[in-house]
Amino acid sequence: MIEIQNISKSYKEVKALNEISLKVNNGELFGLIGPDGAGKTTLLRILTTLLLPDSGSAKMDGLEVCKDFKKVRHIVGYMPGRFSLYQDLSVEENLNFFATVFGTTADENYDLIRDIYYQIEPFKKRRAGKLSGGMKQKLALSCALIHKPKILILDEPTTGVDAVSRKEFWEMLKNLQKKDITILVSTPYMDEADLCDRVALIQSGQILDIDTPTRITEKFSRRIIQVHAQNMYKLINDLRAFENTEAVYAFGQFAHFTGKNDETECNELDTYLHKLGHTNVLVEEIHPGIEDVFMHLMESHNR
Amino acid sequence: MEEKIITVKNMVKRFGDFTANDNLTFDVYKGEIFGFLGANGAGKTTAIRILCGLSSPTSGEMKVAGFDIYKETEKIKKNIGYMSQKFSLYEDLTVSENIKLYAGIYGISAKKRKAKEAELLKKLELEAVKNKLIGDLPLGWKQKLAFSVAIFHDPKIVFLDEPTGGVDPVTRRKFWDLIYEAANNGITVFVTTHYMDEAEYCNRVSIMDAGKIEALDTPAKLKEKYKAKNMDEVFIKIAR
Amino acid sequence: MEQLRSFIKKEFYHIFRDPRTMLILFGIPIAQLLIFGTVIKSEITDIHIAIYDQAKDKTSQEITHKLLSSGYFILDKNLESLDDIDAIFKKGKVREVIVFKNDFGKNLVKEGTAEMQLIADASDPNTAKLAIAYTSAIVNDYIKKLYPEMHMPMQITPEVRMYFNEEMQSAYMFVPGVMAMILMLISAMMTSISITREKELGTMEILLVSPLKPAQIIVGKVIPYLFLSIANAFVIVLMGRFVFGVPITGSFILLMLETILFIMMALCLGILISTVAKNQMVAMFISMIGLLLPTMLLSGFIFPVKNMPIPLQVLSHAMPAKYFITIIRAIMLKGVGLFYVWKETAVLIGMTLFFIALSVKKFKIRLE
């Protein structure tokens, strides 16, 4: 459905995208995962015909994003990173406006947005600027869907949104996927990777890996040891001082430890920590998560 | 009993007939990392603004760093640091100009500043770029620098409003290393975040919903109480 | 078409829901007109004049009486010789001297023409011009009543001399100037701001991704401001006519058509600005510094073009407002038809076409 080949894009001397290639299959919920400045927005803007790549090509449902940009604009629904609706228009006025702009009406495609829109319909006379964050998002999604696009592109829809709204939002995306819409979504939250069919990990304009979330973690060969102790600050400092340490990162209530040659055993760490006077020590080997993988890929890329 | 650095009793803030903070009561202890969580629009920013002396509450009794929130806002401002995701540093000033400016605002002597600046730049490994414009630095570096600048005048409390939005996971952790270090040095950290794993790094966490504090405890006890395996679940159970 | 209609509707919502926009659109024109108007109006009552009546006949005395009873003029002195004129002007109090030539009444009856001379202190050009205009009007009025059957517009040929600023090329009524300024402000600044606001809010991204054509976006932005500007032009002309008594001697239709032409030109300029400006602040800056100030300073509205240094005089030819003010002044005050202002009109049409072409070409169908 989406085919990207060797796309590069620079802003002055900064290389925003470096030879990016990826494919998104029909009906897939595909995640573009990476921190700010990784190049996610640039890539999505190229796909939505808002920017031209310096080199490379991309096709959306077989249409060239550079040459056939007018046709591409008909089949794409796009929700930019910032809230991009008219704050001084009401919910209903926004929806109707975007419907007419795409040459359709709100009634015609109401089926598609019903599940999302009914939640904000009671406030349809309210100005969009006065909606809460979660409601704004639902309105923005409704507007992006109003012309029944084949491909839906969302740029960091969940950034700055609280955990509850994020969860609801992903449920909405899952439902849309069932209605035969291909979805490409970008996010800086690593934990959202598991909600996608496939993901591309992106950092500094380069793709680190593309696969299903499960396979990405399964492929990862390094051994991760999870450590907990009463005093976390001291724990992390002490672990870093350990002779065989490659990396130590805080992960929630735990610290994730990677040894230099993956030969460090749990009991080795346990004795080391007890000797230093730590209490409540818990050491166990775990399966790595997407975030572990991302961090290691990132570090090895930087090296 | 630990020393209380922030005490809030029955704090209420109304905007017209909308109640942003509905009778908040909580204490923050010296040297702790206090997580202040809540859904968008739950009233976090309003509460932080009041505690920083930027906005006055409708009613309630509040003390920050031992000073009364109504009468001694100037003293409060001298004893706190503040960093938000939006404003951190002047993009068109260099690293060292930003530090100079900030030190000047807080009346730090030139001699003391020079010593601290050198130490700071060394710690953050920013010596090579000290004459570069902030605008040219990567986001992660800016955030680390912004935090260090916010605690440059050794405040008793530092307020962090979503300090880690959008940075990569490695930088995010390096940032938390700084927070831990500050807390270890006795600075109380008051932090809001949308990353639930970061909530776990806090000593205690409060969760706000619709202007009220719905829960306040250590992450471990909250998880036990709500029978959740992580803070994400706790949060969703409370806010939904 | 439906797309365009809903776009325009949306645009009107923006305008009517933003108090600041409404204030700029309707408050500022009226305020500016009143400010400029009262400044000038307060000076035109009680103007001190001196009269040198060589004829001393019935007609000249009746005219003198009419002038003094009009309320605009106060007689300072009756002069006895031409040499007194220079002296009395130098004293500074007297603004205008009226000279009736010998046999004034006789010539008027016999030959149908008579000579009088109006000499004004043009160190304050606006007052001078106004004083002359009022005097001429009163004299003409008198003649018309005296000989209603005569068709020629002027039987008395007042020979006007502007003292201290002989040529008086620059001083004209404030209404055309204010009109040019306000239309420039509303049309160019407001359109450029409303387009850049969409860029700032990110809504432009969505509009660009939608199948809307650039022309539709441009037309949709232009039409609401076109209507509002026309409404404003009406208000200004009517206020000028009824509050300040500025005559519209020429064709009102022609006046409005020329005004619409100027508005179109300014709107295109606004769009052009929005294609370069990244945000509202830049758009406002460019409009203010690049359009409003030059319109005020270089168009001859406030400072006479003739008195400017040569480079600025050259630059003033690039000011669309200069041509517009010339046209409007000619139509309103001189009552001429299109035949007399076709050159200026052609220049404005040329400018409009140039800016349309340029802004359509520069309007970006993508970001960056």
From TrEMBL, chain A:
Domain ABC transporter positions: 2-229
The keyword Kinase is assigned to this record: no
InterPro entries: AAA+_ATPase, ABC_transporter-like_ATP-bd, ABC_transporter-like_CS, ABC_transporter_ATP-binding, P-loop_NTPase
Keywords: ATP-binding, Nodulation, Nucleotide-binding, Transport
Gene3D superfamilies, A to Z: P-loop containing nucleotide triphosphate hydrolases
A Pfam family per the record: ABC_tran
MF GO annotations: ATP binding; ATP hydrolysis activity
Protein family per UniProt: Belongs to the ABC transporter superfamily.
Protein's name according to its UniProt entry: ABC transporter ATP-binding protein
Species the sequence originates in: Draconibacterium aestuarii
Automatic annotation (TrEMBL), chain B:
UniProt KW keywords: ATP-binding, Nucleotide-binding
Domain of life: Bacteria
Database matches in SMART domains: AAA
PROSITE patterns linked to this entry: ABC_TRANSPORTER_2
InterPro entries referenced in this protein's UniProt entry, alphabetically: AAA+_ATPase, ABC_transporter-like_ATP-bd, P-loop_NTPase
Protein name from the UniProt record: ABC transporter ATP-binding protein
GO terms assigned for molecular function: ATP binding; ATP hydrolysis activity
Annotated source species: Draconibacterium aestuarii
Domain ABC transporter: 6-235
UniProtKB/TrEMBL annotation, chain C:
Organism: Draconibacterium aestuarii
Top-level lineage group: Bacteria
Pfam (any one): ABC2_membrane_3
GO molecular function: ABC-type transporter activity
Membrane topology annotation: Multi-pass membrane protein
Main location: membrane
One Gene Ontology cellular component annotation held by this UniProt entry: ATP-binding cassette (ABC) transporter complex
Keywords: Cell membrane, Membrane, Transmembrane, Transmembrane helix, Transport
Name this polypeptide is given: Transport permease protein
Compartments reported by the entry: Cell membrane
Domain ABC transmembrane type-2: start-end pairs: 132-366
Family assignment from sequence similarity: Belongs to the ABC-2 integral membrane protein family.
InterPro entries: ABC-2_transporter_component, ABC2_TM, ABC2_TM_bact-type, ABC_2_transport
Membrane-spanning parts: 20-40, 171-195, 215-240, 252-276, 282-303, 346-363
